[in-house]
Design brief:
By secondary structure, this protein is of the alpha+beta class. The protein has helices at 2-6, 25-53, 59-74, 83-90, 99-130, 145-157, 179-190, 196-211, 214-227, 233-242, 248-251, 268-287, 327-341, 344-354, 376-386, 419-437, 465-483, 497-502, 507-523, 551-561, 567-589, 595-607, 613-620, 690-694, and strands at residues 10-15, 18-23, 254-257, 295-296, 300-301, 359-362, 398-402, 408-412, 485-492, 529-534, 543-547, 625-629, 651-653, 661-668, 672-680. The longest helix has 32 residues, at 99-130. It starts with a helix and ends with a helix.
């Protein structure tokens, strides 16, 4: 191939006079420039690593401390109270180490130790300040004097220009709730779902657990919380994601859509080029730690550890599992065995994919929101979630999908991060694509073509017939799963966040209560409801569950269905239910949730071989209504007041329970809420129920 010859840096021929070595200057130039670029990256990473390592101080502050100590010595003042002299006596005397050199070096060593102690003290104080969460429970628009003082201190100690990982060492650890609090909150959460007899039985089982073995399990869990960075996250990743035997397509991976109304260009190749370019820009900032950390109120930092595995990461299937190995995973592992260990060419191709920054699919279909086609969002969602089952690399950290008409989307593997993390990158990419890179009038990328870039290389595969049979079987299983997924996208624009806030209500609480009412009108009963909340105010925090079906919400729903109740009574019950929901959400965010604590107690019980009927019951309860809010405007790069058409469509996920619903929603601007609803055709409980489920007047 001509491309291969151009890539060779040198050629040689054997002559009677010896070997004639011919070097290509052009290729050597590129090698040299690549080396320079590599060393520049290392230098920048080293610099930013130092800046992060000494935060909230700065390297220049070390020089200030050294100068201050040296100045006091010349003034014949000893601020070290004799420590400099002790250091001096321990240093050897030689012709290269005079007495004066000893004195200067001792002062520098003391100043460095003092400076490091100061850094640790600042971090300890900042960590103590960030452990205070009283501010989150205060009424919206009202702030106590103590909270104002607290915010001022946090702002003072946070420095001027923190990097992405600057706050990591200062974030508090996730606290372990007390057994009593968790049990009481759990019993409160299941009360509206159980009749009196069932509740008494659950109460008895819970109280037995509280006596034994809960104290023993709690003791070990607290020991882990003191030792580990986060007592939940590593077990959550391992047992919920990595050890799960269900196929991750549909059951775990989630998707994110493009801008709702805008397609910057209809040229697939141009859109792909700009998006890839923007992603690599983001990756460069991420590798250097130059992204600004996300902060609540613009001051309180969120944990950034999930960003570390965004690029060049792949989930590798394995055989470490329970007793029930799902067929598709067994087949996948067998496939990998054939392809990876027996064939060198397959090993090279797999390694190229697994080590790549991300996976790109140039899809031959056309998708996107079409106001004239009520099913357009539904088909768009299904395509992003599972595609044709063979045109997405579901194990990759994320797959970028670019459609024939220029529309795009992302399919994300869930184990490495949660939706706000990929959403952060997605917001940066869309803003960069539309407002910085842009396109020509004909829809092409701007700028000149870089002809020195290496051409793409086709990956080679050598797949034996036995392996092809296994792959075909896996495909049929995957196709069955994909075909079973039902989706519906709904754009609700009768009102939005603006009106809800005018009613002095949390938009999230309002939507959750509307979902409870819709589900009750659909099923005639209540169900255990999951809402995802984040715990990123703690180091390596991920998520916690908010149990949205409460005694207060069910009372409101029943009042809405009872014609005898007045509007005033309904409003009173609504406010009470909304306040309850908001309080539970705040408790979950501040480490006082229910489900992660019970999950970890269950893991400890399994490790200790302790049988707990209570924990078995809790962990086996199905979430028939699983909900999540997609965050937007984390970076505020797109002014949606100025550019109202440049709003995201959000994203979604598959149903968690076979007979339940998955509902993802995004509050867009002031007057739009987008819903992504999923279920399974195979369930008689949900098939064809989208109209009755969602289109209700509350």
């Amino acid at each position: 191939m001509a491309e291969a010859h151009q890539a060779v840096a040198f050629q040689f021929t054997v002559t009677p006079d010896g070997i004639d070595l011919q070097l290509s200057r052009e290729v050597l130039k590129h090698i040299y420039l690549s080396g320079v670029t590599s060393w520049k990256k290392r230098a920048i990473r080293f610099k930013n690593g130092v800046l992060t390592g000494v935060y909230p101080a700065s390297p220049s502050s070390w020089l200030i401390v050294v100068i201050a100590i040296m100045s006091t010595m010349y003034a014949r003042i000893d601020p070290s109270m004799g420590m400099i002299d002790r250091i001096k006596t321990s240093l050897p005397v030689s012709e290269f180490m005079t007495v004066q050199t000893q004195t200067v070096l001792s002062a520098i060593l003391f100043a460095t130790g003092l400076w490091l102690s100061f850094i640790f003290l600042l971090r300890y104080i900042l960590k103590a300040l960030l452990s205070y969460h009283g501010w989150i429970f205060e009424s919206h628009g009202k702030m106590s004097f103590s909270t104002k003082v607290w915010l001022s201190l946090v702002k003072l100690l946070s420095g001027r220009r923190p990097l992405l990982y600057s706050f990591q060492a200062s974030l508090p650890h996730l606290p372990v709730p007390s057994i009593d609090d968790t049990i009481n909150r759990y019993l409160e959460s299941v009360r509206p779902l159980l009749d009196d007899e069932q509740y008494k039985q659950m109460e008895s089982v819970a109280n037995d657990f509280k006596k034994d073995p809960a104290p023993k399990l709690q003791k070990h869990l607290k020991l882990k919380s003191w030792w580990a960075t986060n007592y939940v996250s590593d077990w959550w990743e391992e047992y919920i994601y990595l050890r799960g035997r269900d196929p991750i397509m549909v059951n775990s991976n989630f998707y994110t859509m493009d801008l709702l109304y805008v397609i910057p260009t209809h040229r697939q190749a141009s859109r792909a080029a700009n998006i890839v370019h923007a992603m690599l820009q983001y990756r460069r900032k991420l590798e250097r730690g130059e992204l600004t950390p996300l902060r609540a109120l613009g001051i309180v930092p969120m944990c950034s550890f999930q960003y570390e595995r965004m690029f060049n990461t792949t989930r590798i299937p394995g055989i470490e599992t329970g007793n029930d190995i799902f067929p598709i995973f067994s087949a996948l592992y067998t496939t990998y065995s054939f392809m990876y260990f027996n064939e060198g060419v397959n090993r090279a191709s797999l390694e190229a994919i697994e080590t790549a920054a991300f996976f790109l699919t140039l899809d031959d279909e056309t998708h996107g929101y079409d106001p004239e086609n009520i099913r357009s969002l539904d088909l768009y969602a299904k395509s992003l979630l599972h595609g044709k089952c063979y045109d997405r690399w579901f194990d990759k950290s994320f797959t970028l999908i670019v459609y024939k008409n220029g529309k795009i989307g992302v399919n994300t593997e869930h184990s490495w991060a949660d939706s706000p993390i990929i959403g952060h990158m997605w917001e940066y990419v869309l803003a960069t694509d539309c407002f910085h890179l842009g396109y020509t009038a004909e829809g092409h990328c701007k700028g000149d073509i870089n002809k020195s870039l290496a051409p793409p290389t086709r990956l080679q595969w050598d797949i034996p017939k036995a392996c092809q049979v296994i792959i075909e079987g896996s495909y049929m299983i995957a196709k069955g799963i994909a075909d079973d997924v039902d989706f519906h996208g709904c754009l609700f624009n009768e009102f939005g966040k603006s009106l809800i806030k005018k009613c002095r209500t949390s938009p999230d609480a309002f939507i959750q209560l509307a979902l409870q009412l819709a589900h009750y009108r659909d099923k005639g009963e209540f169900c255990l409801t999951y809402e995802s909340s984040m715990t990123r105010m703690f180091r390596e925090g991920r998520t916690e569950t908010v149990r949205s079906c409460t005694c207060e919400s069910t009372a409101f729903v029943k009042a809405m269905e009872d014609e005898r109740t007045t509007v005033r009574q309904r409003l009173a019950l609504f406010k009470k239910a909304a306040d309850k929901h908001q309080n539970m959400y705040r408790l979950a965010m501040t480490g006082a949730g229910i489900d992660r604590h019970l999950f970890c107690l269950y893991i400890v019980s399994k490790v200790m071989d302790i049988d707990s009927p209570f924990l078995k019951q809790v962990l086996s309860e199905p979430w028939r209504l699983s909900t999540s809010q997609t965050p937007q405007q984390q970076l505020n790069l797109i002014d949606i007041q100025k550019f109202p058409k440049y709003v995201g469509a959000g994203g979604g996920f598959g149903p968690v329970a076979d007979d339940g619903y998955g509902v993802s929603y995004i509050i867009v601007g002031e007057d739009l809420i987008t819903f992504h609803i999923s279920s399974k055709f195979s369930s008689p409980e949900t098939v064809g129920q989208f109209q009755t489920f969602f289109f209700v007047k509350t």
